[in-house]
Amino acid sequence: MANAKLIKQLRDMTQAGFVDCKNALIECKDNLEAASKYLREKGLAKAAKKAGAIAAEGVALAGVNKKSAYIVEINTQTDFAAKNENFIKLCDGIMKEIKNSECMDIEVLKNLKLSDGETIGSACDDLSGKTGEKIAIRRFGRIVKKEGQDLAFYQHANKKYAAICLFDKKVDETLKKQICMHIVARNPRFINSFQVDENWVSAEKTIIEKTSQNANKPIKFLQKIVEGRLQKRLAEVCLCNQDFDFEPTITVGQLLSSKGIKILSFARYEVGEGIDKQKTDFASEVAEQMGK
């Protein structure tokens, strides 16, 4: 009899029911790939639901070429599928084509052709059919440098976080990597307080005002309290205001100023960021399908 771990893995791959997954594994002698194919052939893998499925796992990848830095998030429905050999091979192919191209738009990216002649978008759809779950490119960005400027990137070992950065001049390789690592770790939203979006400031100020009023502070102190908390919040979200992770006694801004460097642009991706992930109770589902 198939064990529960294999059944869950097949369930994640195909979205088929517990009993169907168990029977498929028994039929295919616990071979996941064969069992997945068996379910698709029997029409039991719920491929029709892939298009609207929530794909909040996957990888965040980044790199540089001579002219630009690029960053992409490629999603799967499960972390198990993100570790699949075919998915990893597809991602490698996508990154190779991004590096060799100058595309700036995600739709153009999807139409780039891989080494076998298939478009990236079509390859994602094909692998979706094989794995039984949604695979898609969620977002893509590229920063192009001008003469004299410098680029950097960092891709975390688990491939769940990545960052790219553009500097106004040549920067030491170690420092470039450290700054990108800092961006991944601290998740700034803006370079400095001068570049903060006014709508963001207004929304944050409203939240702070409401929470401050609920704290029953005297009206005469309210304005100073709001301003103080807003400045503290800005220090949290502005890259140059953050304490530098590799030298916490100074801010990123102070570090850059001491070296005569400016950050002109950056981007940070985190897999599944901003997506409402669907939560499933596997134990309850098993019990329900077993009629308990």
Topology:
Blueprint: H1 4-14, H2 18-27, H3 32-41, E1 57-64, E2 68-76, H4 79-82, H5 85-100, H6 106-110, H7 120-131, E3 136-144, E4 150-155, E5 161-167, H8 173-186, H9 198-214, H10 219-237, E6 243-244, E7 247-251, H11 252-259, E8 263-270, H12 282-289
Antiparallel strand pairs: 1-2, 2-3, 4-5, 5-8, 6-7
Helix pairs in contact: 1-2, 1-3, 2-3, 5-7, 9-10
Short recap of the structure:
The protein is an alpha+beta fold and 292 residues long. Helices cover 46% and strands 18% of the residues. It has three domains: 4-48 and 279-289, Ubiquitin-associated (UBA) domain (Helicase, Ruva Protein, domain 3, Orthogonal Bundle), CATH 1.10.8; 57-187 and 263-270, Elongation factor Ts, dimerisation domain (Tetrahydropterin Synthase, Chain A), CATH 3.30.479; 193-259, no CATH class.
Tags for this entry?
292 residues; alpha+beta; Helicase, Ruva Protein, domain 3; Tetrahydropterin Synthase, Chain A; 3 domains; three-stranded antiparallel sheet; 12 helices
How would you explain this protein's 3D organization?
The protein is built from 12 helices and 8 strands. It has 3 domains: 56 residues, Helicase, Ruva Protein, domain 3, CATH 1.10.8.10; 139 residues, 2-Layer Sandwich (Tetrahydropterin Synthase, Chain A); 67 residues, no CATH class. The mean pLDDT is 86. It is an alpha+beta fold. Strands 1-2-3 form a 3-stranded antiparallel beta sheet. It has a 3-stranded antiparallel beta sheet with strand order 4-5-8. It is globular, with a radius of gyration of 24 Å. Helix 1 packs across helix 2.
